[in-house]
UniProtKB/TrEMBL annotation:
GO molecular function, one term: acyltransferase activity, transferring groups other than amino-acyl groups
N-acetyltransferase domain segment(s): 3-154
Lineage: Archaea, Methanobacteriati, Methanobacteriota, Methanomada group, Methanobacteria
Record Pfam families: Acetyltransf_1
Protein's UniProt name: N-acetyltransferase domain-containing protein
Annotated PROSITE patterns: GNAT
Length: 154
């Protein structure tokens, strides 16, 4: 596997659209209570939310690129807000590349960037139904702090 890592400027965020849509579809399939919200959530809306967030802070887009297939295979979007709060906003890696250290490299790039920017609090929001990722995040000292409940109109 010949994988390269690169940071994208915000104006190149569309390069991860297909990967983000795979993540959204994954969340929709796993969501026990809100699958319709994922079905309605578009990349354009997510992109607008992230770019708006970057106006009030700093946004970073790390990618993993397979040099053999000439395709982006993973990404990690992270941000830093005014109060020195860093967040891994979105991370995805194509299934066939998992358990190969690529996800590890992506999240470490984000966390190192946060450290370089003197972030005091780091967080990741995990969608309900996607709890199987908690073991991965615990390797980087992320643990559940709150459980937020939201009313469903079902």
């Amino acid at each position: 596997m010949d994988i390269s890592y690169m940071e994208l400027n915000e104006d190149r965020i569309d390069l991860i659209k297909t990967l983000w849509e795979k993540l959204r579809d994954h969340h929709r399939e796993l969501s026990p209570y809100f699958p319709e919200r994922y079905a309605e959530f578009t990349f354009q809306k997510r992109k607008e939310d992230l770019l708006e967030k970057s106006e009030n802070g700093i946004l970073r887009i790390d990618t993993a690129y397979d040099e053999t297939s000439k395709q982006f295979i993973g990404y990690c979007i992270s941000s830093i807000l005014d109060e020195k709060v860093g967040e891994v906003d979105s991370i995805y890696l194509d299934e066939e590349y998992r358990s190969s250290g690529i996800g590890d490299a992506l999240i470490k790039r984000a966390l190192n960037w946060m450290d370089q920017n003197s972030v005091e609090t780091k967080r990741i929001i995990v969608a309900a139904g996607n709890e199987n990722t908690l073991a991965f995040y615990s390797r980087y000292n992320f643990f559940p702090k709150h459980i937020i409940l939201e009313h469903s109109n079902k």
